[in-house]
């Protein structure tokens, strides 16, 4: 089964340890995660602008989601 998670869920999954992180872990382990280019762009912007995540870390997050 393919699963699409929106930007808010992905940001929460990487920014905090909670239900969104748990959900992402389950999806990665048991399903096929579908991520659009638009969501990846928005995720990069939010992680940079709102959370100040370093560019290298953002790149690692993006690479992880593209697998």
As a percent range, the share of strand residues is: 5-15%
Q: Structural class of the secondary structure composition?
A: mainly alpha
- Please provide the ordered H/E string of secondary-structure elements: EHHEHH
Q: Order of strands across the biggest sheet?
A: 1-2
- Quaternary organisation: single chain
Radius of gyration computed on alpha carbons: 11 Å
Average pLDDT value? 96
Briefly summarize what is shown.
The chain is mostly helical. The chain has four helices and two strands; from the N terminus they run E-H-H-E-H-H.
Write structural notes for this entry.
The chain contains 4 helices and 2 strands. The chain has 67 residues and is mostly helical. The protein has one domain (2-66). The protein has a two-stranded parallel ribbon with strand order 1-2. The model has no long low-confidence stretch (mean pLDDT 96).
């Amino acid at each position: 089964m393919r699963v699409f998670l929106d930007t808010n869920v992905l940001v929460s999954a990487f920014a905090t340890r909670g239900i969104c992180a748990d959900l992402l872990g389950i999806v990665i382990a048991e399903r096929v995660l579908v991520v659009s280019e638009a969501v990846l762009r928005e995720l990069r912007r939010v992680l940079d602008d709102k959370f100040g995540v370093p560019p290298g870390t953002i790149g690692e997050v993006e690479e992880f989601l593209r697998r």
